Fold this protein.
Amino acid sequence: MSRSTAISAPRFRSRYVAGPRCTTRFENTHKTVRREVLYAHHPWFAHEVWVHAVIEKADGVFFRCTLDGTETDRFLEIPAWMFDRAWCSRCHVTRDPFVSLDTLRALTVPVAGTTTSLILGVEP
């Protein structure tokens, strides 16, 4: 998958389900909400899933989901941005893949550290 411009996934840092303008909130921890997975490259794309909980992690907000709505199934944590229509509409496959130079530079440091660790046999 390629993007025509360098974009990063938004970090939803609120109790709102799909961003600050969304009116659905998780006030009751036992309430489940149905949402459609909008990110085209996710295995559950175009499926309505049951969102049981919102989890905030260091790298963003995730929804704890199931396909059938029962809490007996195993949960899958899906990044909140995969439910955001505005963000997912900007992701598309192109004939000529493109990655911005800034994006490649941002990857240089983490990749360099991992490669060195693997060569030396030490954990990062």
